[in-house]
Fold this sequence. Notes:
Largest sheet of chain A: none
CATH class of the largest domain in chain B: Mainly Alpha
Radius of gyration of chain A: 24 Å
CATH architecture of the largest domain in chain B: Orthogonal Bundle
CATH superfamily of the largest domain in chain B: MetI-like
Oligomer: heterodimer
Largest sheet of chain B: 2 strands, antiparallel
Order of helices and strands of chain B: HHHHEEHHHHHHHHHHHHHH
Number of helices of chain A: 16
Strand content of chain B: under 5%
Number of strands of chain B: 2
Helix content of chain B: over 70%
CATH topology of the largest domain in chain B: MetI-like fold
Largest interface: A-B, 94 and 91 residues
Amino acid sequence: MKKDFKKWTFFDIVLVLFMVFVLIITLYPFLNILAISLNNAVDTAKGGIHIWPREFTFANYKEIFGSNDRLLQAFFMSVLRTVVGTVTGVIASTMLAYTLSRRDFVFNKQVGFLLVITMFVSGGLIPEYMLIRHLGLINEFAVYILPMLISAFNVIIIRSFMDNIPPALEESAKIDGANDFTIFWRIIVPLCLPVIATIALFLAVGQWNSWFDTYLYARSNENLTTLQFELMKILDNANISGGDVTSQNAQVIADQTNPQSIKMAITIIATVPILLVYPFLQKYFVTGLTLGAVKS
Amino acid sequence: MGKSISEVSGQSNNPLFKNQVGMNKKPPINPKKKGFWKRASRQKALILMSFPFVIWLIVFKYIPIGGWLMAFQDYKPQFGMFDQEWVGLQHFKDLFQEPMFYQALENTLGMGILGLVFGTLSAITFALLLNEVRLITFKKLTQTISYLPHFVSWVIGANIVITMLAQEGVINNILVGLGLIDSPIGFMSNPDLFWGIVTVADVWKETGWNAIIYLAAMAGVDPQLYEAAKVDGASRLRQMWHITLPSIRPVIIVLLILSIGNLINIGFEKQMLLGNNVVADKALVIDLYALDYGIGMFRYSFGTAIGIFKSVISVILILICNQFAKKIGEGRVF
């Protein structure tokens, strides 16, 4: 093998060049948008911004965090729903997974069956919308949390992790007189922290990225708007004109910003948290993926 | 008859029954069946830990399935579920007479098939080539960066695609710069390009992610096979074609079958976010159609019927694919 390594062929060079091309295609859009978000909006309209801003300014970010209350509100709402949604989701999935990992639990089979069916059948868009309406969750914060509290896939991943915990640990605790909840909280949860971290990351990314529930259930409540939804609205306005961005850039408002440049700044703000958790994400999610594959 | 007898005898073993009769009976032979109530009362904590989520499952997952009944009613929200007028299959008949529905079906299957073909091809090609890269650090770095777009939302993805394809965007700049076109193309306002743009966006966002499973399969290929091929004088390309690709064939087939089953479930996010008034005819997919009619126009029953139609097609596709898989399974040689 070592000898091979020194023999660089034409093929190897083409391969590396191709991969560099892939990297450029993947990263260029993000760098381009970062540059535009840091560039003067009037200047941007002239075109020609690539990965470096020409007339550097923080005006677009100031617009979000300073002068525009709604965008600031949207940022905090995104953070809030991510935190609350992740915490409640993790607690729910872990608890349910524990009862399913206990094969001696009297309702083990029944609860497991109820859960697994939901992976294959779903009511669909309209019945779910009607349910949310009847429950009075329209324009309520709970609509971000309750409907996606549990995903069968996550529960199964946690349960398969719990299955690998030696039963002797639980038994010794039981002999010491611990009840099931104490065993869960004191023994199972600390041992499951790696898989809990994985699921927490999945849930957090899902919450941070979601926009459709705001669109469908909470668009008439300004207090519940999120960053993704605000971004989607700007996108939608631009789309009405046939997606032609030039005409949008013409209507520059005060402070040297316009919706198009603010859009880029929101995109960056919405991407940064993903980048921050990315090292952890990519460390854990392959485990989750392979676990899921084994189970199914 | 035999079944009912065993059921009766089973009942005498039923701990519930036993408990009512009293404690004088002999203990049952099967220790697992012993003392249902006794076990249940000892597992109060477990029951309390699962009970709220069972309620949740019933409310948020099973009641919407029960909501399918709406498709057979003329549903009006001001009345209760069972005080509605029943109309049988009327909504389905209406659905099959709507030209818009066929348009939506065509768009869904069209973009579904394009996404399936190019999504699979790009993922396999990328995995095959990345697998051959010899600089281990560079290889890992490339793979790590390649699935970054998967984790950003489609709102961001759509924004990126629209920015890149804008009149003064980078793609038009390059094409004009190379002299391939005289004036910038209005990509987003050309209905004929919409399916292609959705497919390209999908490939950009998901190729790295989809390649993970192929790369994992390639890592499991026996190195001796390559050694043997090298001795026989096979070139790298021939090794890829004759060893790597056949080795991951089972994975490719399984994933293809799964995605054919999901051809109709392509979602609507891309189409909704990338679409606009000019290209609306090409962007309308079944989910958007259900959304527009079902919620936008308050035709809840009609929207539910569209959802049921989709589920039925999906089940049929999965069944066909399963049959197909069985056939291939028998004929698989290596």
